[in-house]
Give the backbone structure.
Amino acid sequence: MNTQLCWRCRKRDVPVSERTHVMGVLNVTPDSFSDGGRFVDPGAAVAHGVQMWRDGAGILDVGGESTRPGSDPVSTEEEVRRVVPVLERLAGETDALLSVDTTKAEVARRALACGAHIINDVSALTLDEGMCDVAGEFGAGVVLMHMQGAPRTMQENPAYTDVVREVGDYLARRCQAVQDRGLDPDTLCVDPGIGFGKTTDHNLALLKELDQLAALERPLLVGISRKSLIGQLTGRPVEERLAGSLGVMAWAIAHGAHIIRVHDVKESCDVARVADMLQAGEMQHVTMGTHKITGAR
């Protein structure tokens, strides 16, 4: 993390070059690939969000529409009904940065109005023409993600000539396009979209060359937690992918990721902390018997 970067999310600045930030996933949907149905009750969702914040997640990403392969869209009204009550309560019960995972401008507007700071859009603000205006109006942080195709069909036949170059070029174009629409470049974060319209080989190529995306000079978010790539690499079902996920997270941090989007916050925070200390060369003393680490920031 040599480049000094700061991600502006409304009136809060996130100094992403100083340490890795953990974004906790909170799906309030009945059909998400990993935890679908567990947090459809607002009370359960809020309790889980508060626990992730206590476990170290500085960002909570609330989503009301599944984007897993094969998923179908839901109405704006239903998505608002799912996410807004949860965001309202999390805004009152935590000081986490709150993110809404949506492609709809009206959902984003309602989420920001009740306290959210970030729009996390898997379409990179392309599916709803009003999304740029909403982001600009609130000064929201924005995650621009690469996806080939749409969630329902994106895994049917993904194809690239040079996946690393094409993903990087797309994200660069989208950063420029939204700046041309008036967004502050300091509000922009990029995500290569691991698993979104990509084969296993495509995903591995992106992870191997992740540091090439540093040329965009924007905060880099990577979401790999429990995804099918981990299953393909380990042969494990979704509920047994923690260790594999943590391994890829450590690699991603070492190769330029500033933010990791995860389901298992406590364990991921440990990985991020250790990886950050090793990169900074600040681990001055380790007592293996007690797992005491001193001299770290």
